[in-house]
Amino acid sequence: MNKPVLLASVITLFTATSFNAMAAPVDKSPDRCSAQTLQGSYLYSIQGYRDGKPYASGGFMSFDGAGKATVLWTSSVERAQRFTTGSYTVDENCSGSMILDVTTVNHFYIAPSGDYLEFVRVSGNGVIATDAKRVSRDLLATQPSRP
């Protein structure tokens, strides 16, 4: 093989490899999820219907990575900051459920990185669904202190 053809082949191979590496970033997320996938605090807002009436709420959901959940929120019904605790489970396929106040059940689907989740309330008489994005590795949904 002559030098110009060899040089052209090396340049073509190097260029193709470089562009492929830039175009397809490697996803370093785990293939499976667990309770540890949800760790930290997630900011959310909801719009929907509860008991046939318009409903909205927003706040923080915090997960400890071991099955305990806390939520700090304000809703259009109570119109005051509220706090509750609960538990959650996560399946290997990155789906799971969260039970709050013994009666409120949400099913959720988590990005394998744990940075994002979507949930649908499956208890009660309403249409409530939202997504939530992790905003901190700390547990921000804590019992508010009252003066």
From TrEMBL:
Keywords: Signal. It comes from the Bacteria. Residues 1-23 form the signal peptide. This is NlpE N-terminal domain-containing protein. It comes from Thiohalomonas denitrificans. The lineage of its organism: Bacteria, Pseudomonadati, Pseudomonadota, Gammaproteobacteria, Thiohalomonadales.
